[in-house]
Amino acid sequence: MNQLIRENIRISISAVRSHFVRSMLTILIIAFGIMALVGILTSIDAIKYFFNENFTAMGANTLTIRNRSIQINMGGDRKRPRYYPVITIQQANEFKEGYDFPAKVAIYYFASGSSTAKYGSVKTNPNIRITAGDENYMTTSGDEVEKGRAFSANENFYGTAVVVIGGGVKDNLFKNKEDPIGKIIQLGGAQFRVIGVLKSRGSGIGFNSDNSCIIPLNTARQYFPRANVSYTINIMALANQNLEGAEGEAMSKFRIIRKNRPYQDPDFEISKSDVIAKMLFDQLKYLSLAAKIIGGITLFGAAIGLMNIMLVSVTERTREIGIRKAIGANRKTIRNQFLVEAIFIAQLGGILGVFLGILIGNLVSYLVGSSFIIPWVWMILGFSLCFIVALVSGIIPALKASNLDPIESLRYE
């Protein structure tokens, strides 16, 4: 039995070599379908992993209060766009002091998105994001200190010029493994003492979180003053606390602070980190569906192409089939020979497609800052689909070959 299988594989290799261009075109069509399927599904897994890491770090029990976006009236309504008032520092502080639910409350804003950090004669590119937050900001945002410490409530209260830098800033400014703790760097022309280094979180979609600095909120108000700043509030409910209860308390408390009337919609919005994650994952379902449709259509075309070349192969090798039957080969042997040949061609396409799919998927993984992924499930799915395509495409030519009359086959020219 094993010898017969080896012989069928040898004949399959010989058939592929003798019709190399035709076989390669079919292999490439199959490979493209599998590549699209495995590549996109692996990319989706990488994106999901990235978001899971970030939202897990931030915490599923986190709420964010921010100013509502501009409301633009569509259609025939000629009303002017509605601009909602910013969240002021006074409103944010009043909320923080008066929020009664068991939770940590943080206030922050983005002081700059294109600053340059400088240490001595070395400076970074102007792509450093400076976040201004209070003493609770790093806890509620999921940022962790790898070395040194975060700033204290007193440092925030007195506006001390201290900074916690990202790993990318440290690598750019402090060469030869120089310890950055206690060193003085310049941000936007002001001098800050480095007290901590953030744990690396890698690059995300459109932003590298390692190229960031965090400074005390009151310090930023001195050195990076901005008109009409809208502050953002993070709320992290303590363990075993009901997030819906925290949201309800926050909504009622902040409506009073913002002087929203009972019949009015709130002029601010509260979002939950897990809701944002769910919304993003729901959007990824459409991409997953598109991958399956593209892969399915391509594999359907590949199945037709594979069946076509197998039928042509049966016709071209009619005399060979007659000779094999004349010397004792039965129908099952002939049928299995052509099935093995179809499976061999399909699996070659599968191997190439899975390899390219993993390559593309992990390229996306690298770009979003996720880790390397070996998609075992999608690999098994890819090879299984190739096997099914081979069986569906090869069974009709194989049956046709096995049913040929040996005498008529020997007469075939």
Account of the protein in words:
By secondary structure, the chain is an alpha+beta fold. α1 packs across α2. The longest helix is centred in the last third of the chain and has 44 residues. It is elongated.
For the residues shown, what is the average pLDDT?
A: 82
Q: Count of DSSP helices? A: 13
Structural class computed from helices and strand pairing: alpha+beta
SSE pattern: HHEHEEEEHEHEHEEEHEHEHHHHH
Query: What value does the Rg take, in angstroms?
Result: 32 Å
Shape, per Cα inertia axes: elongated
Key features?
12 strands; 413 residues; 2 domains; elongated; alpha+beta
Task: Provide the fold topology.
Blueprint: H1 2-18, H2 20-58, E1 62-67, H3 89-98, E2 103-115, E3 117-119, E4 122-123, E5 128-133, H4 137-141, E6 145-148, H5 153-157, E7 162-165, H6 167-173, E8 184-187, E9 190-198, E10 212-216, H7 217-223, E11 232-237, H8 243-257, E12 268-272, H9 273-316, H10 318-326, H11 331-368, H12 376-402, H13 406-411
Parallel strand pairs: 5-10, 7-9
Antiparallel strand pairs: 1-11, 1-12, 2-5, 2-11, 3-4, 3-8, 6-9, 7-10, 8-9
Brief synopsis:
With 413 residues, the protein is an alpha+beta fold. It is built from 13 helices and twelve strands. Strands 1, 2, 3, 4, 5, 6, 7, 8, 9, 10, 11 and 12 form a twelve-stranded mixed beta sheet that branches.
